[in-house]
Write a structure and sequence with these properties.
With 440 residues, the chain is of the alpha/beta class. It has 15 helices and 14 strands. The radius of gyration is 21 Å and the shape is globular. Bound molecules: 4'-deoxy-4'-aminopyridoxal-5'-phosphate. Its cofactor is pyridoxal 5'-phosphate.
Length: 440
Amino acid sequence: MTISGSTSQSEALFSRAKAVTPGGVNSPVRAFKSVGGVPRFIVSAQGAYLTDVDGNRYVDYVGSWGPMILGHDHPAVREAIAGALSTGTSFGAPSPREVELAELVTQLTGAERVRFVNSGTEATMSALRLARGFTGRKFIVKFRGNYHGHADGLLVEAGSGLMTNAEGGLGAAAPSSAGVPEEYAALTLVGEYNDPAALDQLIAERGHEVAAVIFEPVVGNAGVLIPTPEFLAALHRVKEAGVVLIADEVMTGFRLSLNGATGLLGLKPDLRCWGKIIGGGLPVGAYGGRADIMDFVSPQGPVYQAGTLSGNPLAMAAGLATLRELQANPGIYTQLEAYTTRLANGLKGAASSAGVPLTVNHVGSMLTAFFIDTPAVRTYTQAAPSDTKAFARWFQAMLSRGVYWAPSQFESIFISAAHSDTQLNATLEAAQTAFKEVNS
Ligand code: PMP
């Protein structure tokens, strides 16, 4: 952490960016809208650190929103990308690395088939089209505060940036975005996460019309919410009604274990979606699962889905290097969890000595500190009243001390294998002062 305190170069870039890009950013939460202040323009990233254009160096808890589980600029990933670069950047024809990554993903996850796309959004959108094509049904079910990317029918009671940035703000009525016709939104039924009885009832009444239930197996996009065993059981019961169960592992895949949340929680989804880590920091998404369903995808089957850059050789190389590194070092997961638990305990202790109410949810290397006075946060509705103003003050206090937290109350932070005691101690030291500043 080296903080000059100056943000003048970021400010200058932000003004230039606002003149040419909506809101000055290419993805909304990056604009710091809910926490205020100037977004830092990053020029380089190394291990657990980000360096901005003013020369400030931060401990990074965003990890590019999930992909950088090995830390930034990991040598194996860098070398794999460099190796791929020397042989061409895009072929528009099948290439060996696509087969290798698909084989590795099927081996690690038990999915029988996998199709690569370019983002998590494409993965969930394609998986839902597939479920509709396979079942011949129109409706889908998602859960309040879960985010599955920005396809039209999924921007309904969605989490992530929509919890703090959308017009109408928190809990805005469906659809959560302008430009989504009500007719599209009407095909999306919304349930409450961790409410098994409501899901059972919905499926009892409408199950015959429902193509798929899509869910975050551990939610990151309403802040971290952990599923109860009863809710997981209800999710699996939907399969009895012929509904395709889709676990959106874009965030949790290869993060919570080598087999993601599915492995950690013993899930049996029909389909899964991946993104983030599967591309090792380059743009990759994927969906996969049961062969009888996946074989409905074009050109094998009648459900169309395509991509000019899908299976891109650089992106496949980065994904392969990342997953191979994780496979070769499974101890990483224990290390990540230990760091995260110590961080959670340290934050709780620091908040409590400063008299700031805080509920910390964490699993594996995902964590959210909710600024709320309640013993447990399990649902979107329980998370929503968090004190976003107190969070914003804390966020700024941390940033000014060189800790780059996720710039929204309703996000997970991500720990990487490059985080060690050095970063943990510095973070907790910063947190002790930052919590005191929340109330001052
Ligand atoms: N699903 C989940 C669970 C996500 O967290 C995200 C992105 N944060 C997406 C889908 C969309 O992925 P992408 O931003 O790559 O389109």
